[in-house]
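seq as requested:
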Amino acid sequence: MQRLFFCLLAAFSWTLAPAPNVAPNAAADEPPNIVFIFADDQCFDTIASLGNSEIETPNLDRIARRATTFTHAYNMGSWSGAVCVASRMMLNSGRFLWDAEPVYQTAEQEREAGRWWSEYMKAAGYRTYMTGKWHCRASAEKSFDVARDVRGGMPDQTSAGYNRPLVDPETGEVTDPWSPSDPKFGGFWEGGTHWSEVVANHSVDYLSEASAIDQPFFMYLAFNAPHDPRQSPAEYVAKYPVDEVKLPENFLPEYPYAEAMAAGKKLRDERLAPFPRTALAVQTNRQEYYAIITHMDAMIGRILDALQASGKEDNTWIFFTADHGLACGQHGLMGKQNLYDHSVRVPLMVVGPGVEAGRKIDHHVYLQDIMPTTLELAGVKKPEHVQFHSLLPILAGEDSPYDVVYGAYLDKQRSIRTNRHKLIVYPAANKIRLYDLSSDPLEMNDVAASPQYAAKIKRLFSRLETLQAEMNDELNLGKLSRYTRSGS
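C-alpha coordinates:
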Protein backbone atom coordinates (compact mmCIF):
# COMPACT_ATOMS: atom_id res chain seq x y z
CA MET A 1 0.00 0.00 0.00
CA GLN A 2 1.55 3.23 -1.10
CA ARG A 3 1.42 6.34 1.01
CA LEU A 4 1.80 10.05 0.69
CA PHE A 5 4.29 11.54 3.13
CA PHE A 6 3.93 15.10 4.25
CA CYS A 7 6.43 17.32 5.96
CA LEU A 8 6.41 18.30 9.61
CA LEU A 9 5.21 21.90 9.96
CA ALA A 10 6.07 24.07 12.94
CA ALA A 11 3.38 24.38 15.60
CA PHE A 12 1.40 21.46 14.25
CA SER A 13 1.78 17.74 14.63
CA TRP A 14 1.34 16.04 11.29
CA THR A 15 -0.03 12.54 10.89
CA LEU A 16 0.60 10.07 8.12
CA ALA A 17 -2.17 10.38 5.54
CA PRO A 18 -2.59 7.01 3.84
CA ALA A 19 -3.83 7.24 0.29
CA PRO A 20 -3.74 3.80 -1.31
CA ASN A 21 -4.19 3.92 -5.08
CA VAL A 22 -2.47 7.29 -4.87
CA ALA A 23 1.10 6.97 -6.05
CA PRO A 24 3.78 9.29 -4.63
CA ASN A 25 5.06 11.90 -7.02
CA ALA A 26 8.07 14.20 -7.20
CA ALA A 27 6.53 16.47 -4.60
CA ALA A 28 5.52 13.69 -2.21
CA ASP A 29 7.56 15.20 0.62
CA GLU A 30 5.43 18.34 0.49
CA PRO A 31 1.84 18.82 1.68
CA PRO A 32 -0.49 18.94 -1.33
CA ASN A 33 -2.42 21.98 -2.46
CA ILE A 34 -6.22 21.79 -2.38
CA VAL A 35 -8.59 23.43 -4.89
CA PHE A 36 -12.25 23.02 -3.95
CA ILE A 37 -14.69 24.08 -6.69
CA PHE A 38 -18.29 24.31 -5.52
CA ALA A 39 -21.38 24.71 -7.69
CA ASP A 40 -24.84 25.70 -6.43
CA ASP A 41 -27.97 23.71 -7.35
CA GLN A 42 -26.17 21.42 -9.84
CA CYS A 43 -27.82 18.04 -10.35
CA PHE A 44 -25.62 14.96 -10.67
CA ASP A 45 -26.76 14.32 -14.27
CA THR A 46 -25.67 17.63 -15.83
CA ILE A 47 -22.19 16.71 -17.09
CA ALA A 48 -21.74 15.55 -20.68
CA SER A 49 -19.05 12.93 -20.10
CA LEU A 50 -21.04 11.44 -17.22
CA GLY A 51 -24.04 10.68 -19.40
CA ASN A 52 -25.92 13.87 -20.38
CA SER A 53 -26.01 14.07 -24.17
CA GLU A 54 -27.76 17.46 -24.20
CA ILE A 55 -25.32 19.63 -22.30
CA GLU A 56 -21.90 21.04 -23.22
CA THR A 57 -19.39 20.84 -20.34
CA PRO A 58 -15.94 20.52 -21.93
CA ASN A 59 -14.05 21.60 -18.81
CA LEU A 60 -15.99 19.48 -16.35
CA ASP A 61 -15.39 16.68 -18.85
CA ARG A 62 -11.71 17.60 -18.65
CA ILE A 63 -11.85 17.11 -14.88
CA ALA A 64 -13.78 13.84 -15.27
CA ARG A 65 -11.11 12.42 -17.58
CA ARG A 66 -8.48 12.99 -14.89
CA ALA A 67 -10.70 12.21 -11.91
CA THR A 68 -12.17 9.40 -9.97
CA THR A 69 -15.89 10.16 -9.92
CA PHE A 70 -18.16 9.22 -7.04
CA THR A 71 -21.39 8.54 -8.92
CA HIS A 72 -23.60 8.35 -5.84
CA ALA A 73 -22.76 11.38 -3.70
CA TYR A 74 -25.53 12.97 -1.63
CA ASN A 75 -26.59 15.86 0.52
CA MET A 76 -28.53 14.78 3.63
CA GLY A 77 -31.18 17.47 3.29
CA SER A 78 -32.09 20.56 5.26
CA TRP A 79 -33.72 22.04 8.35
CA SER A 80 -34.48 25.12 6.22
CA GLY A 81 -36.15 25.96 2.92
CA ALA A 82 -32.73 27.33 1.97
CA VAL A 83 -31.17 23.90 1.50
CA CYS A 84 -27.88 25.61 0.62
CA VAL A 85 -27.49 26.78 4.23
CA ALA A 86 -27.67 23.32 5.76
CA SER A 87 -25.43 21.79 3.12
CA ARG A 88 -22.71 24.40 3.59
CA MET A 89 -22.97 24.31 7.35
CA MET A 90 -22.46 20.54 7.34
CA LEU A 91 -19.52 20.95 4.98
CA ASN A 92 -17.67 23.54 7.02
CA SER A 93 -18.45 22.12 10.46
CA GLY A 94 -18.10 18.44 9.56
CA ARG A 95 -21.30 17.62 11.45
CA PHE A 96 -24.32 15.63 10.32
CA LEU A 97 -27.56 17.47 9.58
CA TRP A 98 -29.26 17.70 12.97
CA ASP A 99 -25.99 18.28 14.84
CA ALA A 100 -25.06 21.04 12.40
CA GLU A 101 -28.37 22.88 12.89
CA PRO A 102 -27.72 24.29 16.39
CA VAL A 103 -24.11 25.04 15.46
CA TYR A 104 -25.38 27.20 12.59
CA GLN A 105 -26.59 29.70 15.15
CA THR A 106 -23.15 29.85 16.77
CA ALA A 107 -20.98 29.36 13.69
CA GLU A 108 -18.68 32.27 14.46
CA GLN A 109 -17.96 30.83 17.89
CA GLU A 110 -17.21 27.49 16.23
CA ARG A 111 -14.78 29.21 13.91
CA GLU A 112 -13.12 31.09 16.76
CA ALA A 113 -12.71 27.80 18.62
CA GLY A 114 -10.99 26.34 15.55
CA ARG A 115 -13.73 23.78 14.86
CA TRP A 116 -14.06 24.91 11.26
CA TRP A 117 -12.77 23.54 7.95
CA SER A 118 -10.60 26.50 6.93
CA GLU A 119 -9.28 26.99 10.46
CA TYR A 120 -7.94 23.43 10.48
CA MET A 121 -6.26 24.11 7.14
CA LYS A 122 -4.71 27.31 8.45
CA ALA A 123 -3.40 25.49 11.53
CA ALA A 124 -1.86 22.90 9.22
CA GLY A 125 0.18 25.61 7.54
CA TYR A 126 -2.03 26.38 4.54
CA ARG A 127 -2.64 29.78 3.01
CA THR A 128 -6.39 29.93 2.49
CA TYR A 129 -8.44 31.69 -0.16
CA MET A 130 -12.15 32.08 -0.73
CA THR A 131 -14.46 33.75 -3.21
CA GLY A 132 -18.14 33.43 -4.10
CA LYS A 133 -21.11 32.04 -2.24
CA TRP A 134 -20.69 31.51 1.51
CA HIS A 135 -24.10 31.33 3.25
CA CYS A 136 -22.66 30.52 6.68
CA ARG A 137 -22.93 32.74 9.76
CA ALA A 138 -19.23 32.55 10.48
CA SER A 139 -17.27 35.43 8.96
CA ALA A 140 -15.81 34.42 5.60
CA GLU A 141 -13.29 37.25 5.86
CA LYS A 142 -12.02 35.81 9.14
CA SER A 143 -12.34 32.20 8.01
CA PHE A 144 -9.82 32.66 5.19
CA ASP A 145 -6.56 34.53 4.84
CA VAL A 146 -7.89 36.09 1.64
CA ALA A 147 -11.61 36.46 0.83
CA ARG A 148 -13.04 38.53 -2.02
CA ASP A 149 -16.57 39.19 -3.28
CA VAL A 150 -18.23 37.03 -0.68
CA ARG A 151 -21.81 36.50 -1.87
CA GLY A 152 -25.07 35.69 -0.17
CA GLY A 153 -27.51 32.92 -0.98
CA MET A 154 -28.46 34.02 -4.48
CA PRO A 155 -28.37 37.00 -6.82
CA ASP A 156 -31.47 39.17 -6.55
CA GLN A 157 -34.37 37.73 -8.51
CA THR A 158 -37.01 40.00 -10.06
CA SER A 159 -40.78 39.55 -10.16
CA ALA A 160 -40.50 39.08 -13.91
CA GLY A 161 -38.43 35.95 -13.29
CA TYR A 162 -41.31 34.00 -11.73
CA ASN A 163 -44.34 32.18 -13.15
CA ARG A 164 -42.94 32.02 -16.64
CA PRO A 165 -43.32 31.56 -19.51
CA LEU A 166 -47.09 31.65 -19.89
CA VAL A 167 -49.05 30.30 -22.85
CA ASP A 168 -52.52 31.58 -23.73
CA PRO A 169 -54.68 28.43 -23.90
CA GLU A 170 -56.85 29.88 -26.68
CA THR A 171 -54.35 31.62 -28.94
CA GLY A 172 -51.17 29.75 -28.05
CA GLU A 173 -49.38 33.08 -27.65
CA VAL A 174 -46.34 32.93 -25.37
CA THR A 175 -45.77 35.66 -22.78
CA ASP A 176 -42.38 35.95 -21.12
CA PRO A 177 -41.25 39.32 -19.70
CA TRP A 178 -37.86 38.04 -18.54
CA SER A 179 -34.64 37.34 -20.43
CA PRO A 180 -31.78 35.20 -19.07
CA SER A 181 -29.19 37.18 -21.06
CA ASP A 182 -30.31 40.77 -20.50
CA PRO A 183 -28.15 42.56 -17.88
CA LYS A 184 -30.97 45.00 -17.16
CA PHE A 185 -32.47 42.40 -14.80
CA GLY A 186 -29.39 42.59 -12.56
CA GLY A 187 -29.00 39.32 -10.71
CA PHE A 188 -25.74 37.72 -11.78
CA TRP A 189 -24.77 40.97 -13.53
CA GLU A 190 -25.11 43.12 -10.44
CA GLY A 191 -21.90 45.12 -10.24
CA GLY A 192 -21.27 44.96 -13.98
CA THR A 193 -19.53 41.57 -14.29
CA HIS A 194 -21.27 38.20 -14.27
CA TRP A 195 -20.68 36.60 -10.89
CA SER A 196 -19.28 33.41 -12.41
CA GLU A 197 -16.69 35.52 -14.18
CA VAL A 198 -15.88 37.26 -10.89
CA VAL A 199 -15.17 33.89 -9.25
CA ALA A 200 -12.90 32.95 -12.15
CA ASN A 201 -11.12 36.32 -12.04
CA HIS A 202 -10.32 36.01 -8.35
CA SER A 203 -9.36 32.34 -8.72
CA VAL A 204 -6.84 33.20 -11.42
CA ASP A 205 -5.42 35.98 -9.23
CA TYR A 206 -5.16 33.64 -6.24
CA LEU A 207 -3.29 31.04 -8.28
CA SER A 208 -0.90 33.67 -9.57
CA GLU A 209 -0.17 34.75 -6.00
CA ALA A 210 0.09 31.18 -4.72
CA SER A 211 2.55 30.22 -7.44
CA ALA A 212 5.04 32.71 -6.00
CA ILE A 213 4.67 31.56 -2.38
CA ASP A 214 6.44 28.56 -0.89
CA GLN A 215 3.41 27.52 1.13
CA PRO A 216 0.61 25.02 0.42
CA PHE A 217 -2.71 26.58 -0.48
CA PHE A 218 -6.36 25.78 0.11
CA MET A 219 -8.85 27.44 -2.23
CA TYR A 220 -12.61 27.49 -1.62
CA LEU A 221 -14.07 28.64 -4.97
CA ALA A 222 -17.85 28.79 -4.69
CA PHE A 223 -19.99 29.65 -7.68
CA ASN A 224 -23.56 30.90 -7.26
CA ALA A 225 -24.29 29.25 -10.61
CA PRO A 226 -26.43 27.48 -11.63
CA HIS A 227 -28.83 28.82 -8.96
CA ASP A 228 -31.64 31.02 -10.25
CA PRO A 229 -31.95 33.60 -11.67
CA ARG A 230 -30.29 31.38 -14.25
CA GLN A 231 -28.57 34.06 -16.32
CA SER A 232 -25.77 33.76 -18.85
CA PRO A 233 -24.59 35.60 -21.97
CA ALA A 234 -26.78 35.22 -25.05
CA GLU A 235 -24.34 32.96 -26.87
CA TYR A 236 -24.69 30.35 -24.13
CA VAL A 237 -28.48 30.46 -24.14
CA ALA A 238 -28.38 30.11 -27.95
CA LYS A 239 -26.62 26.76 -27.57
CA TYR A 240 -29.91 25.30 -26.31
CA PRO A 241 -32.89 26.14 -28.57
CA VAL A 242 -35.88 25.71 -26.31
CA ASP A 243 -37.79 23.48 -28.73
CA GLU A 244 -34.83 21.09 -28.80
CA VAL A 245 -34.54 20.76 -25.02
CA LYS A 246 -35.87 17.40 -23.93
CA LEU A 247 -38.69 17.15 -21.46
CA PRO A 248 -37.61 14.95 -18.51
CA GLU A 249 -38.99 11.42 -18.67
CA ASN A 250 -40.35 11.86 -15.14
CA PHE A 251 -42.13 15.12 -16.00
CA LEU A 252 -45.44 15.69 -14.19
CA PRO A 253 -47.78 18.69 -14.43
CA GLU A 254 -48.10 18.64 -10.63
CA TYR A 255 -46.65 16.58 -7.80
CA PRO A 256 -49.50 15.00 -5.79
CA TYR A 257 -47.97 15.54 -2.33
CA ALA A 258 -46.28 18.91 -2.91
CA GLU A 259 -48.25 20.82 -0.27
CA ALA A 260 -47.98 18.13 2.40
CA MET A 261 -44.22 17.86 1.93
CA ALA A 262 -43.72 21.68 2.10
CA ALA A 263 -42.79 22.09 -1.56
CA GLY A 264 -46.04 23.60 -2.73
CA LYS A 265 -47.21 26.77 -4.43
CA LYS A 266 -45.94 29.14 -1.71
CA LEU A 267 -42.36 27.91 -1.86
CA ARG A 268 -40.16 30.41 -3.67
CA ASP A 269 -38.32 27.87 -5.84
CA GLU A 270 -41.57 26.30 -7.00
CA ARG A 271 -43.00 29.65 -8.12
CA LEU A 272 -40.43 29.97 -10.90
CA ALA A 273 -42.74 28.08 -13.29
CA PRO A 274 -46.53 28.21 -13.59
CA PHE A 275 -48.93 25.69 -12.03
CA PRO A 276 -49.69 23.22 -13.45
CA ARG A 277 -46.32 22.81 -15.14
CA THR A 278 -46.30 23.08 -18.90
CA ALA A 279 -43.86 21.46 -21.29
CA LEU A 280 -42.72 24.88 -22.50
CA ALA A 281 -42.10 26.21 -18.98
CA VAL A 282 -39.98 23.19 -18.07
CA GLN A 283 -38.08 23.30 -21.36
CA THR A 284 -37.39 27.01 -20.86
CA ASN A 285 -36.13 26.53 -17.32
CA ARG A 286 -33.94 23.66 -18.42
CA GLN A 287 -32.61 25.69 -21.36
CA GLU A 288 -31.46 28.39 -18.95
CA TYR A 289 -30.15 25.81 -16.47
CA TYR A 290 -27.97 24.18 -19.11
CA ALA A 291 -26.80 27.56 -20.41
CA ILE A 292 -25.60 28.86 -17.04
CA ILE A 293 -23.85 25.54 -16.33
CA THR A 294 -22.04 25.75 -19.68
CA HIS A 295 -21.04 29.35 -18.90
CA MET A 296 -19.78 28.30 -15.45
CA ASP A 297 -17.92 25.46 -17.15
CA ALA A 298 -16.03 28.00 -19.25
CA MET A 299 -15.00 29.80 -16.07
CA ILE A 300 -13.85 26.51 -14.55
CA GLY A 301 -11.71 26.08 -17.66
CA ARG A 302 -9.97 29.37 -16.84
CA ILE A 303 -9.27 28.11 -13.31
CA LEU A 304 -7.82 24.84 -14.63
CA ASP A 305 -5.62 26.74 -17.09
CA ALA A 306 -4.37 29.03 -14.33
CA LEU A 307 -3.56 26.07 -12.11
CA GLN A 308 -1.59 24.49 -14.92
CA ALA A 309 0.27 27.75 -15.56
CA SER A 310 1.11 28.10 -11.86
CA GLY A 311 3.48 25.15 -11.94
CA LYS A 312 1.67 23.70 -8.91
CA GLU A 313 -0.71 21.33 -10.70
CA ASP A 314 1.27 18.13 -10.11
CA ASN A 315 0.93 18.44 -6.35
CA THR A 316 -2.65 19.73 -6.26
CA TRP A 317 -5.86 17.92 -5.44
CA ILE A 318 -9.02 19.19 -7.14
CA PHE A 319 -12.47 18.49 -5.71
CA PHE A 320 -15.56 19.43 -7.70
CA THR A 321 -19.08 19.07 -6.34
CA ALA A 322 -22.32 20.97 -5.67
CA ASP A 323 -24.24 21.76 -2.50
CA HIS A 324 -27.29 19.78 -3.72
CA GLY A 325 -29.17 19.08 -6.94
CA LEU A 326 -32.32 20.53 -8.48
CA ALA A 327 -35.57 19.16 -9.88
CA CYS A 328 -35.94 21.74 -12.66
CA GLY A 329 -39.15 20.17 -13.94
CA GLN A 330 -38.75 16.58 -12.80
CA HIS A 331 -41.68 15.12 -10.86
CA GLY A 332 -43.61 18.37 -11.35
CA LEU A 333 -41.12 20.14 -9.06
CA MET A 334 -38.75 23.02 -9.71
CA GLY A 335 -36.68 23.30 -6.53
CA LYS A 336 -34.45 21.17 -4.33
CA GLN A 337 -36.77 20.83 -1.34
CA ASN A 338 -37.49 17.17 -1.98
CA LEU A 339 -35.73 13.84 -1.50
CA TYR A 340 -35.64 12.52 -5.06
CA ASP A 341 -32.19 11.81 -6.45
CA HIS A 342 -32.32 14.78 -8.81
CA SER A 343 -32.39 17.06 -5.77
CA VAL A 344 -30.16 15.31 -3.22
CA ARG A 345 -27.57 13.66 -5.48
CA VAL A 346 -24.64 15.69 -6.79
CA PRO A 347 -21.58 15.34 -9.00
CA LEU A 348 -18.40 14.61 -7.05
CA MET A 349 -15.06 14.33 -8.84
CA VAL A 350 -11.62 14.01 -7.28
CA VAL A 351 -8.31 14.69 -9.04
CA GLY A 352 -5.01 14.23 -7.26
CA PRO A 353 -1.49 12.84 -7.49
CA GLY A 354 -1.90 9.17 -8.33
CA VAL A 355 -5.71 9.19 -8.26
CA GLU A 356 -6.94 6.85 -10.97
CA ALA A 357 -8.14 8.78 -14.01
CA GLY A 358 -11.55 8.04 -15.49
CA ARG A 359 -12.54 5.70 -12.67
CA LYS A 360 -16.09 5.61 -11.29
CA ILE A 361 -17.02 4.50 -7.80
CA ASP A 362 -20.67 3.70 -7.11
CA HIS A 363 -20.49 3.52 -3.31
CA HIS A 364 -22.74 5.86 -1.34
CA VAL A 365 -20.97 8.91 0.05
CA TYR A 366 -21.92 12.41 1.15
CA LEU A 367 -20.50 15.51 -0.51
CA GLN A 368 -19.43 16.74 2.94
CA ASP A 369 -16.96 13.85 3.09
CA ILE A 370 -14.67 16.18 1.14
CA MET A 371 -13.97 18.12 4.34
CA PRO A 372 -12.35 15.26 6.33
CA THR A 373 -10.67 14.06 3.13
CA THR A 374 -8.78 17.33 2.82
CA LEU A 375 -7.92 17.27 6.52
CA GLU A 376 -6.37 13.84 6.07
CA LEU A 377 -4.44 15.04 3.03
CA ALA A 378 -3.17 17.97 5.09
CA GLY A 379 -2.03 15.63 7.83
CA VAL A 380 -4.70 16.71 10.30
CA LYS A 381 -5.97 14.07 12.71
CA LYS A 382 -9.73 13.84 12.31
CA PRO A 383 -11.37 15.98 15.03
CA GLU A 384 -13.72 14.15 17.36
CA HIS A 385 -16.76 16.21 16.38
CA VAL A 386 -16.37 15.55 12.63
CA GLN A 387 -18.95 12.93 11.68
CA PHE A 388 -18.34 12.65 7.96
CA HIS A 389 -15.61 10.36 6.64
CA SER A 390 -12.53 10.69 4.46
CA LEU A 391 -12.86 9.44 0.91
CA LEU A 392 -9.27 8.23 0.80
CA PRO A 393 -10.00 4.68 2.05
CA ILE A 394 -12.71 4.32 -0.63
CA LEU A 395 -10.26 5.56 -3.26
CA ALA A 396 -8.00 2.80 -1.95
CA GLY A 397 -10.63 0.17 -2.67
CA GLU A 398 -12.40 -0.09 0.66
CA ASP A 399 -16.18 -0.07 1.04
CA SER A 400 -18.11 3.04 2.02
CA PRO A 401 -18.79 3.48 5.74
CA TYR A 402 -22.42 4.29 4.80
CA ASP A 403 -24.58 1.25 4.11
CA VAL A 404 -27.59 3.50 3.43
CA VAL A 405 -28.23 7.16 2.61
CA TYR A 406 -30.28 9.26 5.00
CA GLY A 407 -32.49 12.11 3.79
CA ALA A 408 -34.58 14.74 5.59
CA TYR A 409 -36.39 17.97 4.87
CA LEU A 410 -37.89 19.99 7.73
CA ASP A 411 -40.38 17.83 9.63
CA LYS A 412 -42.18 17.03 6.37
CA GLN A 413 -40.02 14.46 4.59
CA ARG A 414 -37.73 11.58 5.46
CA SER A 415 -36.03 9.00 3.25
CA ILE A 416 -33.69 6.07 3.31
CA ARG A 417 -31.87 4.78 0.24
CA THR A 418 -30.10 1.47 -0.23
CA ASN A 419 -28.29 0.34 -3.37
CA ARG A 420 -31.60 -0.87 -4.76
CA HIS A 421 -34.52 0.82 -3.01
CA LYS A 422 -35.58 4.23 -1.78
CA LEU A 423 -38.28 4.75 0.83
CA ILE A 424 -39.72 8.27 1.09
CA VAL A 425 -41.98 9.22 4.00
CA TYR A 426 -44.41 12.17 4.12
CA PRO A 427 -45.70 12.30 7.71
CA ALA A 428 -48.22 15.11 7.12
CA ALA A 429 -49.79 13.16 4.28
CA ASN A 430 -49.55 9.83 6.17
CA LYS A 431 -47.92 8.54 2.99
CA ILE A 432 -45.02 6.25 2.14
CA ARG A 433 -43.52 5.90 -1.32
CA LEU A 434 -41.16 3.12 -2.40
CA TYR A 435 -39.05 2.93 -5.54
CA ASP A 436 -37.11 -0.02 -6.91
CA LEU A 437 -34.10 1.85 -8.28
CA SER A 438 -32.69 -1.13 -10.15
CA SER A 439 -35.59 -1.04 -12.61
CA ASP A 440 -36.75 2.53 -11.99
CA PRO A 441 -33.76 4.87 -11.57
CA LEU A 442 -35.88 7.95 -12.37
CA GLU A 443 -38.19 7.13 -9.44
CA MET A 444 -41.36 7.13 -11.51
CA ASN A 445 -43.17 4.01 -10.30
CA ASP A 446 -44.22 4.00 -6.64
CA VAL A 447 -44.55 0.34 -5.63
CA ALA A 448 -45.44 0.90 -1.98
CA ALA A 449 -48.99 -0.39 -2.48
CA SER A 450 -47.82 -3.68 -3.96
CA PRO A 451 -48.21 -6.57 -1.47
CA GLN A 452 -44.92 -8.08 -2.58
CA TYR A 453 -43.05 -5.11 -1.10
CA ALA A 454 -44.75 -5.12 2.31
CA ALA A 455 -41.88 -6.87 4.09
CA LYS A 456 -39.35 -4.63 2.36
CA ILE A 457 -41.20 -1.52 3.53
CA LYS A 458 -41.27 -2.84 7.09
CA ARG A 459 -37.51 -3.45 7.09
CA LEU A 460 -36.66 -0.12 5.50
CA PHE A 461 -38.95 1.81 7.81
CA SER A 462 -37.45 0.14 10.86
CA ARG A 463 -33.96 0.93 9.59
CA LEU A 464 -35.03 4.55 8.99
CA GLU A 465 -36.19 4.90 12.58
CA THR A 466 -32.91 3.44 13.82
CA LEU A 467 -31.05 5.86 11.59
CA GLN A 468 -33.10 8.75 12.96
CA ALA A 469 -31.87 7.92 16.45
CA GLU A 470 -28.28 7.76 15.22
CA MET A 471 -28.71 11.14 13.51
CA ASN A 472 -30.35 12.83 16.53
CA ASP A 473 -33.44 13.26 14.38
CA GLU A 474 -36.27 13.79 16.86
CA LEU A 475 -39.15 13.64 14.38
CA ASN A 476 -41.77 11.11 15.44
CA LEU A 477 -43.19 9.52 12.33
CA GLY A 478 -46.44 8.94 14.17
CA LYS A 479 -49.08 6.76 12.55
CA LEU A 480 -46.58 5.56 9.98
CA SER A 481 -44.74 3.69 12.73
CA ARG A 482 -47.17 0.84 12.16
CA TYR A 483 -44.67 -0.30 9.51
CA THR A 484 -42.27 -1.34 12.27
CA ARG A 485 -44.90 -3.71 13.64
CA SER A 486 -46.39 -5.24 10.53
CA GLY A 487 -45.98 -5.53 6.83
CA SER A 488 -49.18 -3.63 6.15
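The chain has two domains: 31-403, 418-484.
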